[in-house]
Amino acid sequence: MLGGLMQADDSMIDLEFDLDRGVGTRANLGLIVLQTDETIEPEFRQLTAVDGVALYHSRIPSGAEVTPETLSGMQDDIARSVSLLPAAVEFDVIGYGCTSAASVIGESAVEALVQSVRPTAKVTNPITATKAALSKLGAQRVAFVSPYIAEVSSSLRNTLTEGGFDIVSAGTFNESSDSVVARMTEASILAAIIKLGQQLPCDAVFVSCTNLRVANVIEQAEAKLDVPVISSNQAMAWHMLRLAGINDSAQGVGKLFSEY
Fold this sequence. Notes:
There is one protein chain. The chain has two domains: 27-125, Rossmann fold (3-Layer(aba) Sandwich); 128-235, Rossmann fold. The protein is α/β, with parallel strands linked by helices. Helix content is 38%, strand content 19%. InterPro entries: Iso_Racemase_Enz_sf, MaiA/AMDase.
């Protein structure tokens, strides 16, 4: 060392290199993750595990308590969160990972905010993706499971109703803390799905919230109810892949992923 700087090494060999498209040889997906979300990233790794598909995450500030006010407050940070995704990557699809906030802010408003930074990317969110998934499955009568307080859950329910779906039964864990939601057991979630799915005849069960650990119990619930079970993470992962032109089927993640 000389004056705190490393001396040049005359023996260092210049190496040649070639360039390719990077990891996403088939598709590049961007995911905006809530600061408080502990579940969407591990579930998305499972749900988008397709050769040639790259998944990049950015975080967005979010309140520890889930209320209409904290949800709508994220609107101001969506564009900045998108701008923190790798600049050199050309994204096929960007997903905003909050079911409730997409309903409160508005699906078209979320899309506009994302495309203000990435104008060529297709955009989705869990509620838009769920509507697409239910339509693809031909599901009209829906049982609805939510973890959140009544005011937030009602907004989601109304969004689905306005989208043309019939909510035949609905239930909520009535919880406002996102950290509590992330720690609800898979057994509790499975029991809730079965309870709501059996209450009245339905074509599908929708389990809202990206922070609920649903992916590992979807097939058990479908086997018990004999109808598709849709979760926020599963629907958005499926929709992002399909919007990117990736039509691969997948095992162990529900009937939705067998649909093209």
